[in-house]
Amino acid sequence: MKSNTLVISLHDVSPQTQAIVTQQLEELRLIGITRCSLLVIPDYHHHFLISQFPSFVTWLEEQAHHGHEIVLHGYHHLRAPSTNDRASKRLMTEFYTAGEGEFYDLDYEQASRLLKMGKGVLQQVGCDTSQLFGFIAPAWLLAKEAEHAVADEGFLYTTRLKGIIDLRKKPSRFFPSQSMVYSVRSAWRRIVSLIWNELLFQYATYQKWPLLRVSLHPVDWKYPAIQSHLLYSIKRAMKDRTPMTYESWLRSV
Ligand SMILES: [Zn+2]
Question: Could you give the 3-state DSSP secondary structure of residue 54?
Answer without folding.
Answer: helix
